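We include the entry.

. . .
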Amino acid sequence: MKKSTIWILTIVMALTFAGLLYMQFMYMEQMIDMRAQHFREGAKRSLYSLTTALEQNETKKYLEEDMMIIEQSIFDPAPGSVNMSTQEIQPYTLKSNKGNDLSDKITDYQESLKEQYLYQKGLLNEVIINILNQSSNRPITERADSAIVKSYLKTELENNGISIPFEYGIVDRKGHVVFKTEGFDENAPEREVVTQTLFPNDPEVRRHNIRVYFPDLGKMLFSSIKFMIPAFVFTLILLIIFVLTIILAFRQKKLSEMKNDFINNMTHEFKTPISTISLAAQMLSDDSVRKSPTMLQHVSTVINDETKRLRFQVEKVLQMSMFDRQKATLKLQDIDANAAIENIVNTFKIKVEKYGGKIDSRLDAEDPIVNVDEMHFTNVIFNLLDNAVKYRKDDVPLELIVTTKNINDKKIEITIQDNGIGMKEEDVKKIFEKFYRVSTGNRHDVKGFGLGLAYVQKMVTELKGHIRAESKLGKGSKFIITLPIIND
């Protein structure tokens, strides 16, 4: 699959998941808003019923107190009014055929009733005005008794389907708390508080509000959308799996490209020595070559060198099998790291001098005994030195420095430093990955399989050590190996 196809699928799936998550969030938000609105409407209805009940109770109380005044005025009418019973009207009705006197008396009686009605209405108006004036002058805590308010409020809330705990407080028009229950929070967020005016017919300067606080409102709203949590979790799991799948797809794509490069490099590396050996074999079939000891010696040397080169490449390919094992099979023995590195440096010095460079060893470790596999330990040092030669600068003589020192009583530090082309920071982080090869720009003479440093790291790790790299582009590279030492 092409990388562009993977990217297109990634973008489409990412947009799909983003849209799905957005829709879920919007749905949950709308559900919470609708549930909160429904709750506030129910709470508002409950508070309105509470204030209506308080007003009715207060009006009833004052009417009962003033009822005696009205009754007294009925049985003791004002001067000039007529208080005639039905029995008194009936004789006039029976004598209605005796002339206009009866009609005049009925008219007078109706006028008298009208005057009495107006008088009683005036008394009622005075009672109502008296109720309004007297009630607004009373303390709000007497007009809205805490026990009655709590009982009425609980009943009305339950009637509207609200059964969560509540606390309330009564505040004046300036916001000062006049009365509050024990759990009332004056600084509660507005979304958890419902406010209603008590006795809205009072003068504005004497009005008070009741604020009802619902501490568990958030939990109640959350409980209304908790059934959406599994769907959200499943979507999130799918998103994580999708991301991991894309990462694995890119890794597999990269690994496939690396393997293709590996095969191409391997073919090239094998083709060169095989062609050289084949050419040398053809030269041996020439009689003139066989008769010349010098030419015969030269051809023999070429065949021997190319055979060694071919064998070395085969060994590097075989090293790849070690990466598939959980643990390599090592033949551990105690060796002197200083002595082993000195031998490697002396052997490698000829190759360095061939390119006009020099190699310097500073083996200062006082406790150099390490428990390692000598063959793999030698290969590790050889690989690092060989890389230094490969990635040298063409216009600057190669300088290699190999050092050893004890960093504490338990470890030895081995460093291999060069003045080559160096690496970028992003390359330093990846150079120990299998098949990874640092780009060398326009240089085409650097060949390899991308296994050398991966092999080095694996071996150092198997020997219970650690390796790290330090490098700057154009400034050279430095590899630091730490290994445990054996103390006598």
